[in-house]
Amino acid sequence: MKKLVLAAAFAGAASFAHAGGMEAPIIEPEVVIETVEETGGSSSAGLIVPLIVLALVAAAAS
After folding, report:
1. Amino acid 50: pLDDT
2. What is the pLDDT of residues 8-50, one digit of tens each?
3. Measured over all CA atoms, what is the biggest interatomic distance in the chain, rounded to whole angstroms?
4. Could you write out the DSSP letters of every residue in the chain?
5. Which region, left, alpha or beta, applies to residue 18 given φ > 0 means left and ψ of -120 to 50 means alpha?
6. Which of 13, 43, 30 shows the shortest CA–CA distance to 5?
7. Which bin fits 21, alpha (ψ -120 to 50), beta or left (φ > 0)?
């Protein structure tokens, strides 16, 4: 009778130990806000590439 009670106690303890399951916990991602500051570089830097493309188109057309 002692073995039956001991087996029941171990079975009960094992069921409580696995009550949470083996599923991974749900963790919400951390929100990170990043601000990007532009430097005051050359103002003509934005014009060089379009001018080169325009020159290539003009050269190809003639």
Report:
1. 84
2. 887 777 665 555 666 777 888 898 888 877 765 556 667 888 8
3. 106
4. -HHHHHHHHHHHHHHHHTTT-SPPPP-PPPP-----------TTHHHHHHHHHHHHHHHHH-
5. alpha
6. 13
7. left
